[in-house]
Amino acid sequence: MQAYRASVLHFSADPAHHSDAYHWHEDGLLLIADGKVVAAGDYQQFSVQLKAELKGELKIQDYRGKIIMPGFIDTHLHYPQTDMIASPAPGLLPWLEKYTFPTERKFSDPAHAGEVAKFFIDELLRCGTTTAMVYCTVNPVSVDAFFTASETRNLRMVTGKVLMDRNCPEFLQDTAEGGIRDSEELLKKWHKRGRQLYAITPRFAPTSSNAQLQLAGELAQAYPDAYLQTHAAENTDEVAWVKSLFPDSRSYMDVYDKYGMLRPRSMYGHCVWLDDQDRRRMAETQSAAAICPTSNLFLGSGLFDFAGADTAGVPLSLATDVGGGTSFSMLQTMNEAYKVARMATTYLPALRMFYLATLGGARSMQLEGTIGNFVAGAEADFIVLDPQATPLLARRSERTECLEELLFALALLGDDRAIAATYAAGKLVHSRT
Question: Among residues 24, 25, 178, 366, which is most buried (max CB within 10 A)?
Fold first, then answer.
């Protein structure tokens, strides 16, 4: 058994809808055994006998002055775009043409794909992200490279081969049948192998033919425990393009719905330009939205409608969307999410932002009880947050008067430096020092 002493925070519900949504132990203890959570609670409330056993058998790792919480869950990002992050463009579609597609071409080389995957995962762990839903490229080699890098470190990761059989450069184009065949082979190879999970991954509706979308929907129905991820309603030019390509569909989201792609374990990136009917349909099918505020601001795509999504009951999570997003840090992503919400006349408390980045992501992925909080038996993926990580953050943290203020300071002033340590399945996988 392993024991960690610090302030402990985790969630059992969405703070926007429940008054007792979180568990905060200012002097807390987290107990781990065999990579799983045994218990989490107040240090002083653990039995004298248990403390005696712990002191007799192992040393308690002392992180007092810091906060232990579940690892961050990033539900939408692209590992092949690591090397083109912060590339200038006037909008989404020109950005794809000039930077994204040429960069992804290089991922037919296993050595290149493996090197980028390793660096990408290093960055995730340095920023406290222990689970992510990741896009690869159209080349199956890129999927093998990512899963191999993740498996080596025993991480809970989700990814899949991008499907793209039209409206893209020939060097990245697959076929409707060939893309699905490759996807199914990769799914059978990697899905539920250790902690790896597979996602059927059409890039977005404009780059898949009707035939490919039909086959992708059929594959998703054949493997209901697999994931499905794609983009939806990110940008007004993109929405107009979808309308011209699918004139018989009521909306962008309706395109996916017609092919049976709205379902539990489906994750839709962005979801900026949806209407109320789209949101109701997502809620009915438990299709989740990955909110990507940093990317949406960078590309000028629009502001996510938190109020509309909450009214409909859409499952929500936060995502960096690297490399449209300009940071791997979920703390910096919270910073932008708060501002996006304010611009859309919604107030986003810090407690809810941390929920969205942990249990909210797990619930959106249908993984509550596996990751995202500290219930007994959950996988022991957790991070150690340091409120003293920078001089400014330390100064502000010393003057906070409640948990909400402390978390708000971390969200608005924090970055990768605030992650003192990252653990996956109970093992240290990153230490700032």
Answer: 25
The total number of residues written for the chain in this structure: 433
3: number of Cβ within 10 Å:
23
Tell me phi and psi for residue 195, to 5 degrees: -105, 10
CA 236, 312, 210: angle at the middle one, nearest 5? 50
Residues 6, 335, 418, 381: is their CA dihedral positive or negative? positive
Contact predicate 198/227, CB 8 Å: yes
DSSP per residue over 47-92, as a string?
Answer: -HHHHHHHHHH-PEEEEEEEEEEEPEEEEEEEGGGGGGTT---SSH
Query: What does the pLDDT profile of the chain (433 residues) look like in tens digits?
Result: 899 999 999 999 999 999 999 999 999 999 999 999 999 999 998 866 676 776 667 789 999 999 999 999 999 999 999 999 999 988 888 989 999 999 999 999 999 999 999 999 999 999 999 999 999 999 999 999 999 999 999 999 999 999 999 999 999 999 999 999 999 999 999 999 999 999 999 999 999 999 999 999 999 999 999 999 999 999 999 999 999 999 999 999 999 999 999 999 999 999 999 999 999 999 999 999 999 999 999 999 999 999 999 999 999 999 999 999 999 999 999 999 999 999 999 999 999 999 999 999 999 999 999 999 999 999 999 999 999 999 999 999 999 999 999 999 999 999 999 999 999 999 999 999 8
**Which among 272, 203, 207, 269 has a CA at the least distance from the CA of 236?**
272
Task: Give the burial class of 228: count Cβ atoms within 10 A of its Cβ; 0-12 exposed, 13-18 middle, 19 or more buried.
Answer: buried
